[in-house]
Amino acid sequence: MPVSIEELDATVRAFYEGRGEQFKEDPDAWLMVDDILSKATYEQTKFLGLQVLDNVIMTRWKVLPREQCQGIRDFVVQYILQCSTSEEALKAHRTLLNKLNLVLVSVLKQEWPHNWPTFINEIISACHSSLSVCENNMIILRLLSEEVFDYSAEQMTSTKTRNLKSSMCSEFSQIFQLCQDILNSATQPSLIKATLETLLRFCNWIPLGYIFETPLIDTLRTRFLEVPEFRNVTLQCLTEIDGLPTGGPGQLHSYDEQLVKMFTEVLTAISNIIPLDMDLKAMYPQSNSRDQEFIQNLALFLCNFFGMHLPLIENLPNRDFLTHGHYYLVRISQIDDREIFKICLDYWLKLVQELYEEMQSIPISDMTAMPLGAMGGGAPNPALLTNYPLRKHKYNEVLSNLRVVMIEKMVRPEEVLIVENDEGEIVREFVKETDTVQLYKTIRECLVYLTHLDVVDTEQIMTDKLARQVDGSEWSWHNCNVLCWAIGSISLAMNEETEKRFLVTVIKDLLGLTEMKRGKDNKAVVASNIMYIVGQYPRFLKAHWKFLKTVVNKLFEFMHESHEGVQDMACDTFIKIAKQCRRHFVALQPSENEPFIEEIIRNLGKITCDLAPQQVHTFYEACGYMVAAQGNRNQQERLLAELMAIPNMAWDEIIRSANVNPSILQDAETIKIIGNIMKTNVSACSSIGPYFFPQIGRLYNDMLQMYAATSQLISEAVAREGEVATKMPKVRGLRTIKKEILKLVETFVDKAEDLQAVRAQMVPQLLDSVLVDYNRNVPGARDAEVLKAMTAMITKLSGLMEDQVPVIMENVFECTLEMINKDFSEFPEHRVEFFNLLRAINLHCFPALLKLDNRQFKFVIDSCLWASKHDNRDVETAGLNMCLELINNIAEKTDVQTSNAFFNQFFITILQDVFFVLTDQDHKAGFKTQSMLLMRLFYFAHPADGTQPKIQGPIYQPGQAQPGTSNREFLGVFVSNLLQNAFSNLTPIQITTFVEGLFTLNTQYDKFRLALRDFLISLREFAGDNAELYQVEKEQQERDAKAAEHERRSKVSGLLKPSELEDDEL
């Protein structure tokens, strides 16, 4: 090859300065690797050589001649030995060796055990040659273990993974003996550390006898646990050991004694390092990183051990080990480090859940002997349980400390919009942190269980802390917030009587605090906390009308408060209460002259006068829930008319003025008002639902005229200024009006119940106003909302829209296609809505699709296939799903002649495109639907169950195969050739086996998908992350877990938030 190593050095230098990858792409570059490693002087050149070599091993190993494979293997081994001959060499070549070791592991995954059965013997023998070789070999064994047992699932085929695991286990005794020898006699710290790190990777898969029937645990504890340099990795090994499932058939808890001995002795050693009374919260920030890591490892050790083997320690005669272990965890939980806290929190949740479940297992007969209401609907009085031999009694003091920790570590719930920022200011929070939301859910759950375990202690701690807020001894924004968030989080955990007493105290104290505190920030903090708490206790509000009315009036007061975020939160809390207590607002309450809704609507202008438009929309949506709850239709229509009176007055005035002087529609302020009126209607409609019909009927004709008028103004602006006009503020305002009109129609149609009325009274005028306008507009002035509204109508009205599909397609199909088929990026919203519309037509009005002319029908198929290759995930999903649904409809719902004609024309095109996306790294996310699509194609051509194929005619064109060739034969040959041409590294036997599987498994989706996945992984073996190929399993697991989780939470009062319950469950 005409390039010298000196030249390559210069090239690599250029490459790392950002100029080209030509060498890396040369298919013969790997032949120079031995020269590169021996002669190159620039370190990055050697790395490049190893990258090239690694790539060859991963992708071309199977097609290399055997002697070349052997040559690579020998070369890598020799070069590793050369770089690790001495401690100095080891240090000098450490970075290069790390890469070399990984290259060797890549070779092992291809060669071991079938072509290299003596590898383990060789590596162990080499360890005796020098300490430095031994240290590096330990690292190789660790990397191999990680590769086989930790990372294999998504990078190797299931068969290969199984073979490697089996080989590793069968030869482990020699490896273990080597580790033991080193740990017993070595003195060199780096070798000991490498061995401990390797042992750490072994612990989770080696046979238990190696751990519990040898002196390993004692060696770890006595030689290394208290040595600062080794204690972190040693504690990690012990953590791995204490998390092992030691029970099982024939050996049930056979290692209990060793586990107890390990725990008690380790805890004693820990007390020498960290005294039990040490203030870890204060000490942690001042510690070095190694000590901080040790505290995190201690948390993992304790949580792991207690999580797996808690009964062993609970049953010890000496209870100190149980309490001391948990006190360490309480101390660690107090540290201001979120990751450490999350480790502890997972264990605390498990513990309190178990203690609660044991408490629930008290026989029913004993329960009925308790006073009425003691258990029903909330936590029992703990005094009633003192005579039962419950595990929770052993933890009383620990749990009391834990309640304080959980309250003080509570994080902001989603509903709270006002927070203290990093600069110590009280501000409106705009971004929800998913990590915080999840953490809140877990702490909340823990507190609910803690309340059930001792409601008296929980109430006492919270009221004491609140008293210290009121007297100022613990007052701070943070302390007030976390306490109130904690109080809000235990809604429904107490029984009604306790909850009433507790809440009356809490809200009175907080209302007093708002009066007492001076300064806008202080008042805003307390106000946000009052709003959060009342929003969490709808059961209490429903049962105490006066309190509900007082709270709502307080919210109306807060709606005039100018501090950032207070009005938002007042509106959010109001809508939450309106949803949960809606019937109470429309019913006549005792000692009231009228239902509260009447007063609210009468004063609506005053209440909302200081709110921003978006907040007013939320207010209308909240009132809409109340209007929908009025069962008397006449009363309901009156309330609806009165609720919408203000926007209707403004609308009537604008319509009147526009009839006299159309130019007012060009006034920016008028445009803004019209947009707001429409948004108000959309908000009210979303909560009133089908009962909104009188209001939409009142506006409908004027609304469509307004649509036409604004369209005219937009067209005139475009004619004057060109397409750039569509980006100007005034035109954008006009487009907002059009979009909101469409959104209102879409919202109503989605909620409608009388579909015949919608079809007869709304659809014709809407299509007349919207479709031609969309078609004749310039692309930049076409609104994606038109496509969305059509999709909503077709989805809701289904067959009733069949006769309208041709006119819809005629006006929107080709002109939209023109907008989006030039590239993958312009008009992103139109792309998604276009394919959603096609999919809706196929699903709900399929016969109409068959009536399209040939040219349009081909456009539809081409569009689907094009969408399946799109880089926008939503477009890709819509395209794939439509393609799948379309071929199913053609095969199942059409006559043989239509079906044969379709598959003759499109089968091969669809098949080729499916293989294209299947084998493209960028489209792994679509694997679930791609695999189903491929399976259906093979099933329609040649079903594995022996039934008659859905496709009766040929799937090939004349000239593609001999007349009379069966579809089975043609398809097998076609796919084999397709794969052979695309992937030259595949052997004929691999392809034949795979293609055969496509035929034999096409009635068993799970097996078909698994065969396809294994094939794809072998295509690009080890190339990148294949997690998305496991999406189906992941989705199913998530669904099952979600259902089980909901079932579990529904059994514990307080675990489901009030907002997750139906009204009658509160």
UniProtKB/TrEMBL annotation:
<dbReference type="Pfam" id="PF18777">
    <property type="entry name" value="CRM1_repeat"/>
</dbReference>
<dbReference type="GO" id="GO:0000055">
    <property type="term" value="P:ribosomal large subunit export from nucleus"/>
</dbReference>
<dbReference type="InterPro" id="IPR001494">
    <property type="entry name" value="Importin-beta_N"/>
</dbReference>
<dbReference type="Pfam" id="PF18787">
    <property type="entry name" value="CRM1_repeat_3"/>
</dbReference>
<dbReference type="GO" id="GO:0031267">
    <property type="term" value="F:small GTPase binding"/>
</dbReference>
<keyword id="KW-0819">tRNA processing</keyword>
<keyword id="KW-0539">Nucleus</keyword>
<dbReference type="InterPro" id="IPR040485">
    <property type="entry name" value="XPO1_repeat_3"/>
</dbReference>
<dbReference type="InterPro" id="IPR013598">
    <property type="entry name" value="Exportin-1/Importin-b-like"/>
</dbReference>
<dbReference type="GO" id="GO:0017070">
    <property type="term" value="F:U6 snRNA binding"/>
</dbReference>
<keyword id="KW-0653">Protein transport</keyword>
<comment type="function">
    <text>tRNA nucleus export receptor which facilitates tRNA translocation across the nuclear pore complex. Involved in pre-tRNA splicing, probably by affecting the interaction of pre-tRNA with splicing endonuclease.</text>
</comment>
<dbReference type="GO" id="GO:0000056">
    <property type="term" value="P:ribosomal small subunit export from nucleus"/>
</dbReference>
<dbReference type="GO" id="GO:0005737">
    <property type="term" value="C:cytoplasm"/>
</dbReference>
<feature type="domain" description="Importin N-terminal">
    <location>
        <begin position="16"/>
        <end position="82"/>
    </location>
</feature>
<feature type="region of interest" description="Disordered">
    <location>
        <begin position="1034"/>
        <end position="1066"/>
    </location>
</feature>
<protein>
    <submittedName>
        <fullName>Exportin-1</fullName>
    </submittedName>
</protein>
<dbReference type="InterPro" id="IPR045065">
    <property type="entry name" value="XPO1/5"/>
</dbReference>
<dbReference type="Pfam" id="PF03810">
    <property type="entry name" value="IBN_N"/>
</dbReference>
<dbReference type="GO" id="GO:0034399">
    <property type="term" value="C:nuclear periphery"/>
</dbReference>
<dbReference type="Pfam" id="PF08389">
    <property type="entry name" value="Xpo1"/>
</dbReference>
<dbReference type="GO" id="GO:0030623">
    <property type="term" value="F:U5 snRNA binding"/>
</dbReference>
<dbReference type="InterPro" id="IPR011989">
    <property type="entry name" value="ARM-like"/>
</dbReference>
<dbReference type="GO" id="GO:0006406">
    <property type="term" value="P:mRNA export from nucleus"/>
</dbReference>
<dbReference type="GO" id="GO:0005049">
    <property type="term" value="F:nuclear export signal receptor activity"/>
</dbReference>
<dbReference type="GO" id="GO:0061608">
    <property type="term" value="F:nuclear import signal receptor activity"/>
</dbReference>
<keyword id="KW-0813">Transport</keyword>
<dbReference type="Pfam" id="PF08767">
    <property type="entry name" value="CRM1_C"/>
</dbReference>
<dbReference type="GO" id="GO:0030619">
    <property type="term" value="F:U1 snRNA binding"/>
</dbReference>
<feature type="compositionally biased region" description="Basic and acidic residues">
    <location>
        <begin position="1034"/>
        <end position="1050"/>
    </location>
</feature>
<dbReference type="InterPro" id="IPR041123">
    <property type="entry name" value="CRM1_repeat"/>
</dbReference>
<dbReference type="InterPro" id="IPR014877">
    <property type="entry name" value="XPO1_C_dom"/>
</dbReference>
<dbReference type="GO" id="GO:0030621">
    <property type="term" value="F:U4 snRNA binding"/>
</dbReference>
<dbReference type="GO" id="GO:0005816">
    <property type="term" value="C:spindle pole body"/>
</dbReference>
<dbReference type="GO" id="GO:0030620">
    <property type="term" value="F:U2 snRNA binding"/>
</dbReference>
<dbReference type="InterPro" id="IPR041235">
    <property type="entry name" value="Exp1_repeat_2"/>
</dbReference>
<dbReference type="GO" id="GO:0071528">
    <property type="term" value="P:tRNA re-export from nucleus"/>
</dbReference>
<dbReference type="InterPro" id="IPR016024">
    <property type="entry name" value="ARM-type_fold"/>
</dbReference>
<dbReference type="Pfam" id="PF18784">
    <property type="entry name" value="CRM1_repeat_2"/>
</dbReference>
<dbReference type="GO" id="GO:0000776">
    <property type="term" value="C:kinetochore"/>
</dbReference>
<dbReference type="GO" id="GO:0008033">
    <property type="term" value="P:tRNA processing"/>
</dbReference>
<comment type="similarity">
    <text>Belongs to the exportin family.</text>
</comment>
